[in-house]
Design goal:
Layout lengths: L7 E6 L9 E8 L3 E5 L2 E2 L13 E6 L5 E6 L3 E4 L3 E6 L7 E3 L7 E2 L3 E6 L2 E12 L2 E7 L9 E9 L5 E15 L4 E10 L2 H23 L1
Antiparallel strand pairs: 1-2, 1-5, 2-3, 2-4, 3-8, 5-6, 6-9, 7-8, 10-12, 11-12, 11-14, 12-13, 13-16, 14-15, 15-16
């Protein structure tokens, strides 16, 4: 279940913004306490980073096709022909199993309502969306936390006119400060109808086509 030598790690730091390329690194050594990997390189930029003091989400895919992830901070480095970094081996309860399917993610300004027990419904706008989840901007004073469960209603424009609403349950996987009073909330879908997920996927593909046409003028 844990990463093995030569497995590829896909690394996302807490400071990553939507659209930033993921960092990739190959596992070089595994000992009793640590997983060692080569210096991570970011897709699209070829930048490298040692991620000092920053929490990382580390994902990997095993032979059976199951994708796992865990959170960790770099706890060591060394040089043996190449620069290598180390993170602690995660405990079994710290591993998350993820669907391997990769969804197209697009920028999207959509209406989203976050329903709260015994509290007023929050009305926000999404930043981006995919078939696997979405992100939105929230006020820090709302006190949203990682791993918090959410019940939401999303409104997606339908052609030729009107909106279609999609209800789902999701979970906050990461938060990121944006300003002194706002933060970015990243949510993955946990309970959503297959048909509603397909509507989101279709919206993403249509939005990508529209964006490309707009860029071409």
């Amino acid at each position: 279940m844990l990463p093995k030598i030569n497995d590829m790690l896909f690394i996302t730091p807490d400071s990553a913004a939507p659209g930033d390329g993921v960092y990739k690194a190959r596992v070089t050594e595994v000992d009793d306490k640590r997983i060692w990997f080569e210096l991570p390189i970011q897709e699209g930029t070829a930048r490298s980073s040692k991620f000092s003091y920053e929490r990382l989400e580390i994902a990997y895919v095993q032979e059976e096709g199951m994708k796992h992830s865990f959170f960790a901070k770099v706890v060591g480095s060394k040089q043996d022909g190449i620069v290598m970094l180390a993170v602690p081996k995660p405990k079994a309860e710290e591993l998350r199993k993820l669907q391997r399917r990769a969804y197209l993610r697009v920028k999207a300004d959509l209406e989203l309502k976050v329903h709260q027990d015994d509290e007023p419904t929050l009305e926000v706008r999404t930043i981006d969306i995919s078939g696997g989840g979405l992100s939105f901007t929230a006020q820090q004073r709302w006190g949203m936390k990682s791993n918090q469960a959410l019940t939401c209603t999303l409104y997606i424009p339908q052609k030729p006119a009107g909106n279609d609403y999609i209800s789902f349950r999701g979970r906050i996987v990461r938060t990121e400060l944006r300003t002194e009073v706002t933060e970015l909330i990243m949510v993955e879908f946990e309970a959503i109808m297959d048909g509603d997920r397909e509507k989101i996927i279709r919206y993403c593909f249509d939005k990508q086509i529209e964006d490309r046409k707009r860029l071409k003028g």
